[in-house]
Write a structure and sequence with these properties.
It is built from 10 helices and 6 strands. By secondary structure, the protein is of the alpha+beta class. It comes from Rhizobium herbae.
């Protein structure tokens, strides 16, 4: 598989746009004997995927927050190195994990290889190659350093191209106080104005705005109001 990962690096270098890289990923995935690939970019408040998995499975995976119960994702975050997996790799599975594997099987996902890499600021990106065959791929077949280098190239290429995700999901829940403070800010009110209008202490207004910025993963009030408006949170 080392030669395959080297070919993946070559494909990243010559890919002129995201479509050519996606095509190369699909071709190389099939060339290696796998059925599907999935590139996942995992953030605390946001997860998005670029994949040729069945669209229905992608929608279900992200809408039901399966990244929180997917044992492949859990293992990737813990190991932070390339590994192989199968649906029956452990007998001591939780009810949620068994259900997850059952549903994945319906879409032809039974085994595979996953390669996680650090994507900066404590976040993780990973590439998974999946098969409908129930077999365990030997981890001795590939060099984890070469594997990580190739996936880092994939991550960098997609990030620089601002590639369009196949599907994405962002889970952000703002408290009522955070939403009202942002809404007033969007209307052009200062923090002092908001404190008077809502009968809050100035320090409390600052706290709610700070918490909202943290949840929205932005640096300024202006960015927070723009993102919250875009996501229909205010």
């Amino acid at each position: 598989m080392d030669r395959w990962f080297e070919k993946l690096i070559d494909a990243c270098v010559i890919a002129s746009n995201e479509l050519s890289l996606k095509d190369a990923l699909q071709t190389l995935t099939n060339e290696l004997g796998f059925d599907c690939y999935a590139y996942l970019n995992l953030h605390p408040n946001e997860t998005y995927a670029i994949s040729n998995y069945p669209a229905e499975w992608q929608e279900r995976y992200l809408s039901r927050l399966y990244a929180t119960v997917d044992p492949v994702v859990t293992t990737a975050k813990r190991k932070m190195r390339a590994f192989s997996w199968t649906e029956n790799q452990s007998r001591n599975l939780s009810k949620e994990t068994r259900q997850f594997y059952t549903e994945a099987r319906e879409f032809g996902i039974r085994s595979g290889v996953s390669i996680p890499v650090m994507s900066g600021f404590g976040n993780v990106a990973m590439l998974t190659l999946a098969s409908n065959k129930l077999e365990r791929y030997s981890e001795e077949d590939f060099d984890p350093v070469v594997a990580a280098a190739s996936v880092a190239q994939v991550h960098t290429k997609f990030s620089r191209q601002s590639a369009t995700a196949t599907i994405g999901h962002r889970l952000i829940v703002l408290k009522p106080e955070e939403r009202i403070c942002l809404k007033w800010s969007a209307e052009g009110k200062t923090l002092e104005d908001i404190a008077v209008l809502e009968g809050m202490k100035y320090n409390n207004v600052c706290f709610h705005i700070k918490q909202a910025r943290k949840k929205l993963d932005v640096l300024s009030i202006q960015q927070a109001t723009a993102v919250a408006t875009k996501l229909n949170l205010i």
